[in-house]
Amino acid sequence: MTGKIAVGGITRQDELVLVRVLGAQPGKGLAGRALSGLGLKGINIVCVVSFIDDAGLNNICVAVHRDDLDQTLGILQDIADEIRPRAIKYQKGCTAISIYGPHFSERPAIAGSIFDAIARVGVEILAISTSFSTVSFVTNEEQAEQAVAELHACFQVP
After folding, report:
1. Which residues touch 83 (CB under 8 Å, ≥6 apart)?
2. What angle do CA 146, 132, 140 make, to 5 degrees?
3. Is the pTM higher than 0.85?
4. Can you list the domains of the chain with their CATH numbers?
5. With contact defined as beta carbons under 8 Å apart, do 64 and 72 qualify?
6. Can you give the pLDDT at residue 125?
């Protein structure tokens, strides 16, 4: 017995760009319009985070493959007149790392354990997305190897 929390596995996807639509007007369907527009053009969204800020404005962040950046920006610009965002920004050189396993939704400390582990080695978190069985985060490509190594050191991975 190692004392480590058992997980189902760790995956990594490199060559991503994090695209942020910031400060869009409320009630304009930002998430639906952006995600539908990207999906209908065959753009795979690796990670998505959406929230309403303290000014009541909508924000969404999507991670897409770097080859899809121009098309992604074009789609978002096409809806910009209606959603009126304050900014559309992007960050190249990103990686998505996912840790998955059974019963994650029944383990309230799993996400904290993951992010404590990567914080110990100074890995910057750019976005977080979770589901019932997976905790995913986006970081800089240059920090991805260090993050994955620390996760392997802290968790029991098959």
Report:
1. 21, 24, 25, 28, 29, 30, 33, 58
2. 25
3. yes
4. 5-13+94-156 (3.30.70.260), 15-92 (3.30.70.260)
5. yes
6. 97
